[in-house]
Design goal:
263 residues; alpha/beta; Rossmann fold; binds S-adenosylmethionine; 7 strands; globular
C-alpha cells in the first residue's frame, strides 16, 4: 500500500489547549493511517466537547488511528460506532478493488490497536459498507466523521444519507475534502448547494461542517467560501499527478514534501 508520510510539523496549534490530546496522540500516532496530528487534534476537540450520551459515527476506520482519537475523547456514556467493511477495497490511494486478505489484516490490526489503546470496549464496530449499515445506528448523530470510500457515489451517499442524520447543531467532519476528486464532487452536490450545512473551515483536507439551516443569502456566501478551496484542490490534483508520474521532487515546488498522497 502507499504509506502516508510522517509530518511532525503539522501540530494544528490552537485547536485544543488542554493536555488531553497529547496523551491520546501518543497512543494513536503509531497506528498506520492518513490522519495528521493537526487533523487528529480537531477530531479530539470536537469529540471531547460532546455531552454525555452523544452519538459519534465514524465511516472508514482502517486500522483505528482516527477511531482511537474519537473514542478516547468522547465523554463517558457516549456511543462510538465505527463503520468499516474491512474488505480491503476503497482503502487508500489507488487501492480501490477489494482484496480479502488485505481486509482481514486491517481488521486484525484495527482490533489489536484499539485494545492496545484501551478503547476496545468503547467502540462498536459495524463490519458493513456504510450504505448497508444504516440500521446499526438508532436515531440522530451528534458527530459524524466521514473517511470511507472516496469514489463519488459512496462518498455522496455518506454525505447525503449519513450526513442527513446529523442533529441540528451537530458536526460533520470530512476527510480528503478538496483533495480527492470523488469526495470533492460529492461535496459540490451536497454541502455546496444544500441549505443544511455551514462550512466551518478545514485543517488541510479535513473539512468541518455545522448542521444549521441557512437562509438564501447565507447559502450563497457559504458556497463561495467552499469554492475558495478549489485552487487548493487543483494544487492537490497536480501533486498527485506528479507523484503518479514519479516526479515527487517536483511537487516540492507546490509546497508538498514526501512521496505520499496529500491529505
Ligand atoms: C482512508 S481509510 C480510513 C482511515 C482512517 N480513518 C484512519 O484514520 O486511519 C478508508 C477506510 O474506508 C473503508 N471503507 C471502504 N469502503 C467503505 C464503505 N463503503 N463504507 C465504510 N467504510 C469503507 C476501508 O476499508 C478503509 O479502511
Amino acid at each position: 500500500m502507499t504509506r502516508p508520510g510522517s509530518d511532525s510539523s503539522d501540530s494544528g496549534a490552537g485547536a485544543e489547549p488542554g493536555g488531553g490530546f497529547e496523551a491520546v496522540w501518543a497512543r494513536a500516532a503509531g497506528v498506520e493511517g492518513w490522519l495528521s496530528e493537526g487533523q487528529a487534534r480537531l477530531l479530539h476537540h470536537r469529540a471531547s466537547g460532546l455531552p454525555p450520551g452523544a452519538v459519534v459515527v465514524e465511516i472508514g476506520s482502517f486500522r483505528g488511528r482516527s477511531t482511537i482519537v474519537l473514542a478516547s475523547a468522547a465523554p463517558v456514556g457516549a456511543e462510538v460506532v465505527a463503520i468499516d467493511p474491512h474488505a480491503g477495497g476503497d482503502r487508500g490511494p489507488r487501492e480501490i478493488a477489494p482484496e480479502a486478505a488485505r481486509g482481514q489484516a486491517d481488521l486484525a490490526a484495527f482490533e489489536a490497536n484499539l485494545a492496545a489503546a484501551g478503547v476496545a470496549d468503547r467502540v462498536r464496530h459495524v463490519r458493513l459498507p456504510s450504505a448497508e449499515a444504516g440500521a446499526a445506528v438508532n436515531g440522530g448523530i451528534d458527530l459524524l466523521y466521514v473517511d470511507g470510500a472516496h469514489r463519488f457515489a459512496p462518498a455522496r451517499f455518506d454525505l447525503a444519507g449519513w450526513g442527513g442524520r446529523v442533529r441540528p447543531g451537530g458536526t460533520m467532519l470530512v476527510h480528503d475534502a478538496f483533495s480527492s476528486v470523488g469526495v470533492t464532487l460529492a461535496l459540490l452536490t451536497t454541502t455546496f448547494t444544500g441549505a443544511g450545512w455551514r462550512y466551518a473551515g478545514r485543517h488541510r483536507s479535513l473539512a468541518e461542517f455545522e448542521r444549521v439551516r441557512l437562509t438564501l443569502g447565507e447559502r450563497l456566501a457559504d458556497a463561495l467560501r467552499q469554492a475558495a478551496q478549489l485552487p487548493w484542490f487543483l494544487r492537490n490534483l497536480a501533486v498527485k499527478a506528479l507523484i503518479a508520474a514519479r516526479l515527487a521532487p517536483v511537487a516540492r515546488l507546490l509546497g508538498h514534501r514526501g512521496g505520499h498522497w496529500p491529505y
